[in-house]
Design a protein that fits this description.
With about 210 residues, this protein is of the alpha+beta class. It has 3 helices and 9 strands. Strands 2, 4, 5, 6 and 8 form a 5-stranded antiparallel beta sheet that branches. Strands 1-9-3-7 form a 4-stranded antiparallel beta sheet, with no helix packed on it. The longest helix has 25 residues. It is elongated. It binds calcium ion.
Length: about 210
């Protein structure tokens, strides 16, 4: 009975099959993207009014992106804004050296929450509720998500109704999960024994 020997397998054919497998088993990770505006007044992290007569309550920007802890978040924010008429206008990095909560005043913040957005002075949220989910982004950012949930954006201030300006944000969330083998890779895995067998047969025949 004929039994193909691996020693007779044509090495180039085997290497080509393995190379094709390597190329198809590791597709590039896909990114979710968001582009939109964050307004200093309507997207303030604080729902405390700066004065009477305000007819709206701010809320955070819902990016529509659900992130998983370990995902990479990258992006930029362009534009300027200010927390009141008596304060300096800044970009999304805010007033460096002056804080509101743990972050610079007038800075762009991100928040990851699996139970809706959290703001100071809104919905019974405590400062700890807000700060456990929120982080600094600024005008250019590249960070790893520390938790899982919906990604929100906000302007950092202590009150709303006297703020002006907005920034345009463009960001991407890249998954940290290991991609599954593609259909092509799985098909090649199934064909590999057949390819090895055929190569061995041909090698044996040519050596006679
Ligand atoms: Ca303000």
């Amino acid at each position: 009975m004929f039994r193909p020997s691996l020693r007779r397998v044509r090495v180039p054919a085997l290497l080509a099959a393995l190379l094709a497998l390597a190329l198809t088993v590791s597709p590039a990770a896909k990114a979710q993207t968001f582009t939109g505006s964050v307004n200093a007044d309507t997207n303030s992290i604080s729902a405390s009014p700066a004065g009477p007569g305000l007819t709206f309550t701010p809320t955070l920007v819902d990016t529509g992106l659900d992130v998983v802890a370990g995902d990479r978040i990258t992006g930029t924010a362009t534009g300027t804004w200010v927390i009141s008429g008596n304060d300096p206008i800044t970009d999304a990095n805010g007033q460096i050296g002056r804080t509101a909560g743990p972050w610079w005043v007038s800075s762009l913040l991100g928040q990851i929450s699996d139970s809706g957005p959290y703001q100071y002075h809104a919905g019974g949220a405590t400062p700890e509720d807000v700060e456990a989910r929120t982080f600094f982004l600024g005008s250019s950012f590249d960070l790893i998500a520390g938790s899982t949930g919906r990604l929100y954006l906000a302007f950092n201030d202590t009150d709303y109704g006297n703020n002006e300006g907005s920034v345009n944000v463009s960001l991407a969330v890249t998954s940290a999960t290991v991609p599954e083998p593609s259909a092509g890779a799985l098909a090649l895995l199934c064909l590999l024994p057949l390819l090895l067998c055929r190569a061995a047969v041909r090698s044996r025949a040519s050596s006679r």
